């Protein structure tokens, strides 16, 4: 296409006006060919399978990195901007080793959540400022734990989710948050799912007030 543009632009002066018009047309076509397109972020069927039965993602969008002045510090605020639960220091190689930046997700009839891709697996974070789900009888089969001084429940989301981990962590004042971890697969580098959930929970709790 570049060669044909050069030929058009070097015609004789007798066709100067026509040449100019042709050049403009070709350059416009070149500009059209160079339009940037943002590729869609690949989704994980396994990650979506760990969500509550039925909902499908309505929308998702990358989240901005939090600044000290904008980062929310209560679970109620995080319910509106869940991807701000972690900062750049948390996600670095020396800590959580996040390799895919947080993406906010909205599921039908469900709270907002944020998904990160970390060394070890995909991690979904869902705030529940309206309830402490560590006291919910529906999850009594999960294993009680203590994370950073907070009551927590850890276990497998369902009988079909071997290797995955779900965690409910109390945030105090009748509030809690949920972490769902789906490992990348056998042999992938990084911690196992329960350890990854625990590490994310500690980092999130460190910012909450």
Q: Would you write up a description of this structure?
A:
The chain is α+β, with helices and mostly antiparallel strands. It folds into 2 domains: 2-33, no CATH class; 45-207, Protein Transport Mog1p, Chain A. Helices cover 26% and strands 28% of the residues. The chain has 6 helices and 8 strands. It has helices at 2-9, 16-33, 45-49, 75-78, 88-91, 193-207; strands at residues 57-62, 98-107, 112-118, 121-128, 143-147, 150-155, 165-172, 175-183. The chain has an 8-stranded antiparallel beta sheet. The longest helix is centred in the N-terminal third of the chain and has 18 residues, at 16-33. The chain is globular, with a radius of gyration of 25 Å. The termini are far apart. Residues 1-58 and 65-69 have low confidence and may be disordered.
What secondary-structure arrangement, pairings included, does this model have?
Layout: H1 2-9, H2 16-33, H3 45-49, E1 57-62, H4 75-78, H5 88-91, E2 98-107, E3 112-118, E4 121-128, E5 143-147, E6 150-155, E7 165-172, E8 175-183, H6 193-207
CATH architecture of the largest domain: 3-Layer(aba) Sandwich
Strand content: 25-35%
The arrangement of helices and strands along the chain is: HHHEHHEEEEEEEH
CATH class of the largest domain: Alpha Beta
Q: State the low-pLDDT regions, or none.
A: 1-58, 65-69
Structural class: alpha+beta
* Radius of gyration computed on alpha carbons: 25 Å
Share in helix: 25-40%
Question: What is the arithmetic mean of pLDDT?
Answer: 76
How are the strands of the largest sheet arranged? 1-2-3-4-8-7-6-5
Within the CATH hierarchy, at the fold level, what is the topology of the largest domain? Answer: Protein Transport Mog1p, Chain A
Largest sheet: 8 strands, antiparallel
Based on CA inertia axes, which overall geometry fits? globular
């Amino acid at each position: 296409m570049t060669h044909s543009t050069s030929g058009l632009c070097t015609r004789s002066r007798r066709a100067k006006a026509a040449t100019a018009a042709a050049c403009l047309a070709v350059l416009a076509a070149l500009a059209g060919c160079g339009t940037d397109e943002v590729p869609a972020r690949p989704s994980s069927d396994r990650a979506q399978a760990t969500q509550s039965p039925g909902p499908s993602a309505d929308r998702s969008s990358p989240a901005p990195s939090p600044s000290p002045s904008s980062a929310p510090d209560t679970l109620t605020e995080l319910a509106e901007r869940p991807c701000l639960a972690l900062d750049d220091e948390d996600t670095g190689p020396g800590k959580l080793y996040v390799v895919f930046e947080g993406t906010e997700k909205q599921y039908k009839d469900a709270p907002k959540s944020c998904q990160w891709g970390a060394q070890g697996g995909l991690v979904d974070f869902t705030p529940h400022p309206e309830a402490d789900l560590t006291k919910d009888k529906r999850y009594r089969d999960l294993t009680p734990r203590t994370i950073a001084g907070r009551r927590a429940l850890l276990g497998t989301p369902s009988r079909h989710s071997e290797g995955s981990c779900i965690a409910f962590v109390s945030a105090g004042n009748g509030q809690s948050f949920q972490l769902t971890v789906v490992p990348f697969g056998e042999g992938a580098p990084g911690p196992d799912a329960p350890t990854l959930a625990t590490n994310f929970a500690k980092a999130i709790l460190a910012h909450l007030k």
